[in-house]
Amino acid sequence: MTAPSTGYGRDRRRVRHSAALGHRDLNQGGPPPHVVVVGAGIAGLAAATGLAERGCHVEVVERERYLGGRVGGWTERLTDGTQVGMNRGFHAFFAQYYNLRKLLGRSDPELQQLRRLEDYPLIDAHGRRDTFRGLPRTPPWNALAFALRSPTFRLRDLVRMDPRAAAPLAAVSVPEIYTQLDQFDAETFLRTINFPEAARHLAFEVFSRSFFIEPGRMSAGELATMFHIYFLGSNEGLVFDVARDNFDVSLWTPLAEYLTTPGVPGRPGTVRIHTGVSIDRVDTEGAGFRLVDDTGAILTADAVVLAADVGNLRRIVAASPTLGDAEWRSRVAALALAPAFAVHRLWLDRPVRADRPCFLGTGGLGPLDNISVLDRYERQAACWAEDAGGSVVELHAYAAADTAPPLATRTELRDKMLARLHMLYPETAAANIVGETMLWRQDCPRFSPGDFAERPGVCTPHPRLTLAGDGIRVDLPVALMERAATTGWTAANALLRQWDAAGHTLHTVPTQGRSALLRTFATRERRTR
After folding, report:
1. What is the 3 state secondary structure string of 459-502?
2. What is the pTM of this model?
3. Helix (H) or strand (E) holding 409
4. What gap in Å lies between CA 284 and CA 230, rounded to an integer?
5. Which of 278, 300, 380, 502 matches a 20 to 30 Å C-alpha distance to 512?
6. What are the pLDDT digits (tens) for 40-56?
7. CA 483 to CA 509: how far, in whole Å?
């Protein structure tokens, strides 16, 4: 493992999205605006940071007792009383996540709490493996090298692909790609372009399921955008960083200290964070807002950022009849959830083999989607493994069920995931399970055909009410955690404009395909179809 890339990465063609100019400290010239941010996930923390750094008084209200949302971390106890770190599973911090890294850099300027994984191999049911190690960084050679050295992709497969049908994939422009492809599902699109079936299962299925949805139910527009972000639109490379410790320790406790510590040069110190509190409704009150929490307590605010997950956003808006207009409210109500997923963490009494990778993605080996060996990179897991002479292993099943299943079905899925682990890592079959935790959640946004056009954006009918989160529309080439961070910064910028305050500059991979030749070809093919 090596140190992560810091700052804004190495890609000279990344795009700088300049922010509005204006005041840099709203404390000068009168009382600063008071903003309530609902939700302390990545989006909410980015919004809070952007606002506080311009002098706003910010209160963050989070229903969980920890920060970070779906990338939060907390402590649990094994049956023997040992305290262990726990979270909702593996997360990859790619180098092209510029706006997320900007946020993390506020409390960790050199990003020392991240570490680089050199590879994340993929394996299918036939034992075929793909690897990202040693690929060239520059498009399109990265994608071409990956395809040609893959056991599931041969040169004749490249020749058989339909160049006219595949043209949008090679020259993505955002948001135009959604107009072209969002009405199709990803699996149908890949079949249309004659993408080889084995490669679909091993490569694209692994990536699509990281969106917590199967290819047959995922938007082809989202798939193409993903391909652009990670392959043809960026030369940051295809490897990623992971957190050195549980997310609360590595990421969010330091950021909370940055936001809430007063009197430290360069820090806002104007943020109050309330955890374990759920907002029930938000009402307009004059030019401002009145928020009611689950205890009946009332908060007032000049502006509000709703950075809750999809389910809670729908709940709050449904209970708040004065917010927005009918069309906007219907867009929020129509937001849908991806299928439920499971994370099964195991504390084993013996180590896995030394040559096992930190992370292994699987294709065609359902219900298992990946295996992580946490003690190879996470500090708390490594300490436990060293003391116990064992290992900490995590199994993921994305899109495991349309809804969270009954206990009997969960037990059956657990047993199937364990069987897959024992098949792929036979040494684990003889290990005793010292402790285990299985989480079922269904709170990730859905990215299905037709969803993009109906998704609400950051700005709302009320100029001082904004939305943020990975389920919120933003017309930039971002996804997953980076979409959450980008919408958070964008929500802050939209409110700062109301007070003539300076916004925060953002960065993304190029918003259109890097190759002028491919863009010209794609445009011509689109016009002739």
Report:
1. ECCCCCEEECCCCCECCCCCCHHHHHHHHHHHHHHHHHHHCCEC
2. 0.94
3. helix 407-424
4. 41
5. 502
6. 999 999 999 999 999 99
7. 12
